[in-house]
Every structure is written in structure tokens, then in C-alpha cells.
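Q: Here's a chain of 241 amino acids. Please give me its 3D structure as C-alpha cells.
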Amino acid sequence: MKKILGVVNETGTGFVGLGAAGAGLGIVIATTLQTGLAFRITSLLLEWTGGQMIPTLIAIFIACFFLGMGLPPIIVYIVSVLLGAPALIEMGITPIGAHLFCFYAAICCELTPPIATAAYVASMVAKTNFWKVCLFSMMFGAAAHILPFAFALDKSLLLMGRASGIIWATLTAGVGVVLLSWGIAGPFKSRIDMVSRMFILFGGLLLIFPGFTTMSAGIGLALAGGVVTLIEKQATAPVYH
């Protein structure tokens, strides 16, 4: 009974904060709807970015990132989609791609300073320095910041379209994520020099994005990084007589 009462007490205490956040959300939603900001923000974003796809995606990513700071995921989703999704849909991005882009952008603030709530919790559990955890969370979560742009530009990554396109896009993006992570964190059991690391990192980054040109450039850079690594290993290998 004592444990049950403790759980009830903790749950009630937790819902106080959630209720305050919900009240704040209600104010935000009502304000944006009553003032017409929810409908005006689409034309404002397209005006500021000149209607170009990449600048618009970057602007909405940054806006959703700051909107998501310190809010629970459901509230983050509602606020970010309310302000960002209409502009993306108007530019031709599929509705599910627009919604997922805004949601991904908003929850990236969990990994990245200045808030980085997930990193803060991890540092408390591990009893280590918060800023070091932030550094590694940004490194290991780099793909999470890049993938939203990829599936916003190519619906195949959302399993939409022809089967061949879905398989190819998923394969190249998966390889790209592995190479991007390898370029950032390095291999498991050895080290690679900075030149190889940069080649592999940018090669993986290009492989994530759709298009024959980016894919070809990504493969070329990744192969160049592998060749440089092999040459360096051969040059530093011990010579036995």
C-alpha cells in the first residue's frame, strides 16, 4: 500500500507539469488560430525563402527545433505541424513527409544543446559531465538531423512509390547512415586519419540524399576514403626481414 500511494503521489505531481504544458499549448494553438498566424506563417515562410525547397526546409527545421525545446513529444508534434507542415505540403511534399519532417526537427532538440533533455537525463544516470554527453549525443545523433531532409525530398524512404525505388533508396540511405556514423565516430577497433574520415563522412552524407549525381559522388568519396585508409595502413605496417 505504501508503494501504491507513492506511485499515485508521483503520478499526480508529474501531471501538474503536464497540465501546465497543456494549458500553455492551448494558449499557443488558440492564438495562432484566432490571429490567423497558422495560415499566414505558410506564406511568410515561402516569402522569406523565395519558395525554394532547401532554404524552406532549413528554415522550418530551425523553427521546429526551437519550438520543441522542453515540451513533451505529443505537444511538440502538434505545435510544429501546426506551423510548419502547411508550407511543406504547399511545396509538393507528401503530407506524411511534411508531418514527419516537422516532428523529427522538433525532437532533435532532445539531443542538441541548449536544452538537450535526453542528454541531461543520460548524464544524470551516468553521473558524468552534461556537456560531454551533449557532444557525443550530437555525434551519434547526426543521422537523425539529416534523415528528415532526405525523406522530405524522396518519398521512397517513407515506403511510398515503386518497390524498386523503395529498395534502392533504403539501401543507399542505410549505407549512407553507416558511413556517416563511421566518419564521425571512427571504426570500432582501429583509427583512421582525418583525410579518410572526411571522405567517408561526406560520402555517407551524399548517399543519404536521393538522386543519381549525389549517389555517384557519395560512392566516389567513400571509395576514396577507403583507398586512403588502405594506403596509410600499408605505409605504417611493420616490415619484417
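Q: Can you summarize the key feature?
A: The chain has a mean pLDDT of 77.
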